[in-house]
Amino acid sequence: MTPPAAVAGRNNTSRGAIFTMLAMLGFASMDTITKWMVADYPIGQMMWVRYGIFCLFAWFVVRHRGLRAALRSNRPGLQLGRALLAVVESAVFVLAFRYLPLADTHAVAATSPLIVIALGVLFLGEKAGPARWAAVAAGFVGVLLIVRPGFRELDWPLLIPVVGAVLWGGYQILIRLCSRTDTPETTLVWSAFVAFGATTLVGPLQWRWPDATGWALLVAIALLGALAHYALIKALDYAEAGAVQPYSYTLLVFVTILGIIVFGDIPDHWTLAGAAVIVASGLYTWHHERQAGR
């Protein structure tokens, strides 16, 4: 059994923040390619290929330790449920990309940090001081500046990323729970192989043979997703779930930039103002946590 002190004893918010932002960049890049491809390939097929390559990535990470050893979990039921939740959450967001612009989807989904902090307090016993709540609230204000509710019609597809945000928040809480008894490598391996097993039930049935470009993009999606998940697992191994949530708002900044580059969606001044508030809230939290750590 892995000593709890060796797994959950680390509490380095700065490292957690860096890994969180790297994860958000990976997810933003993956989602951009996914939105490009979802019109031509079935969701089940895309996820099956993605998690198949994710398995190879996970094996490469744990090859020195051995796959069988890495699969040994102190809480296998929790790992199984967490990995299956990740599959459902991913499918929900891919479905949202079919109906909504990239930035709109992530703007609605940006409510997840509030969900994580609330769930962290309820189920993990984490403390959320006024500064942390203020930073997350400021980031949410930035999201409101971008979405500007009341100035647009509420179409039913906007409910899809709301469901995704709840699932994403729960997934991060379960990662933190797993980090108390299992190593990041164990969580990574369970994430890959359980998800691949689940998507194997639907992926081959929806198969549409890709061309060379399609294969390249599918591999890119898989590698970006694997790297992003591993970075997030490392982030939640180093820091409390609530501590890194303000940094997850950088995902919205990344998808906005990629939306300009790939789809030509140029943000207006409200979007730029909201992005500035989001970045400022993350920097404020980082500075406050460093001062408190001293």
How large is the count of helical segments? Answer: 14
Residue share in β-strands? under 5%
Rough shape? globular
Helix content percent band: over 70%
Span of the ends, CA to CA = 33 Å
Q: Count up the domains.
A: 1
Helix-strand pattern:
HHHHHHHHHHHHHH
Low-pLDDT runs: 1-9
Sheet bearing the most strands, described?
Answer: none
Class computed from helices, strands and strand pairing: mainly alpha
Arithmetic mean pLDDT:
85
> How many β-strands, per DSSP?
0
Radius of gyration: 19 Å
Protein name: DMT family transporter
Keywords: Membrane, Transmembrane, Transmembrane helix
Transmembrane segments: 12-30, 42-62, 83-100, 106-124, 131-150, 156-175, 187-207, 213-232, 244-263, 269-286
Domain EamA: 15-147, 159-281
